[in-house]
Amino acid sequence: MGSISSIFIFVLLWINSSSGQNYTITSVVEDPYLIDNGDGTFSGFMIDLLDALSKRGGFSYEIGLNPDYKYGSQDGSGNWNGMIGEVLQDPDIQIAAAPIVITDERKSAVPFTRPFLNVGHQWSRIRPEDDPTNAKDSFSANNAFFFVHSTLTWQGYKEVPRSPAGRILVTMWFSFIFFMVIAYIANLTAFFLARETEKPVVPFKTWQEMTTQSNVLYGVKPGGVMHRSMKVSKDPILQHAIQNIETYSTTFSSSEDGIKRVRESDGSFAAIVPVDEGSKYINNEPCDLMFVGANIVNTPYGMACKSVDICNRLTVALLKEAESGGLYLLQQKWLSPKSNYKCPAASLENYISKQETARLSARPLTIADASLAFVVLLIGIVFCIIFLVIEVIIHRRRKMKSTRISKEGQTNKSADVEQATDEQEKAPIATNEATNNID
């Protein structure tokens, strides 16, 4: 019992001795984490977070800027620069408070607190026009009715051909039209499904599509977490991506420089940037940028400390702040200010990539595709010609027979007339002769 009491008293004494300490903190200006107000004071996410942690941890702090404006990386000789170097080399600096990505290399050099934020990386590129050709409104109710009426409604005839050849030809012609309309509608359906104007087109939507195309270059910040992850990755897609970046020298110095290059490239360049850094450009005017693809690498942000004791103290305060909901409120205030967004959210589902349009490409309708319709029409024409020849022959025979009968009738009639005329001429002569005999 006595040993437990002594341990408890020691812990209380250690906590009391550590309370009221003043820490010197180094940081870098990075909106919205740390904003220089211009009058020697700062604001932003880190200031509010440090204020909350200082109240819970019972310490005060003074914050200054890193002269190198770097987070910290090792040079060829193994020395650290930036904020990590300050924590290691400057005895007056106890904490580096900034969105420092926690990596194995940095953790082996200095202790870190628990992550206070996890973010990812996405592509950023020029946002295409949502509907440059008004494709969504091209088929109104009137236009759709006119289109259907003019292509599918067949005109009927009051009278039908009386000859067998004409009826066969008309029947096969309408069969031909029927097959052609079906083939045309089927091909037209495929064409409308494959139209690039149905959805705005983006060059790519996935890592694989990005690495297999060559129209849009892409880059990343050198020395950053994403750049290092791509270099050490065994994924062939990421290896191909970093090879292209190094071949074409498409790296940029900062996220702001990458966004500037995206805007100046007129859609021929994409920048791989952290979501939190890219959001402030994408969600504000002129609303010409958009994120493409899902988060690539989740990176935890933490604070670097000179000693493990300081990090443990900050970690306890971070846990309390997270449990109370204060950390979430800070993230919503500084990192997700949707009320201040001036651009509408662009969903990638409303866009289509060029690779997807290639898979939906419509093939022109050829004569071979409509061969059945032409065969039916050809058969109809052949039968029509055969029946037409038969009809002509029959008609001529009937006409010749009718003419022969007519001529025979006319000949018989002429003979009867001549005979009657002769009899009439002979009758008066006989009468006259009889009269003379009487006299």
Automatic annotation (TrEMBL):
All residue ranges annotated as the Ionotropic glutamate receptor L-glutamate and glycine-binding domain in the record: 32-89
Subcellular location: Membrane
InterPro entries in the record: Glu/Gly-bd, Ionotropic_Glu_rcpt, Iontro_rcpt_C
Domain of life of the source: Eukaryota
Protein name: Uncharacterized protein
Transmembrane segment boundaries: 169-194, 372-394
GO molecular function: ligand-gated monoatomic ion channel activity
Keywords, comma-separated and alphabetical: Glycoprotein, Ion channel, Ion transport, Ligand-gated ion channel, Membrane, Receptor, Signal, Transmembrane, Transmembrane helix, Transport
One of the record's GO cellular component terms: membrane
Occurrences of domain Ionotropic glutamate receptor C-terminal (ranges): 22-337
Taxonomic lineage of the native organism: Eukaryota, Metazoa, Spiralia, Lophotrochozoa, Mollusca
Coiled-coil spans in chain: none
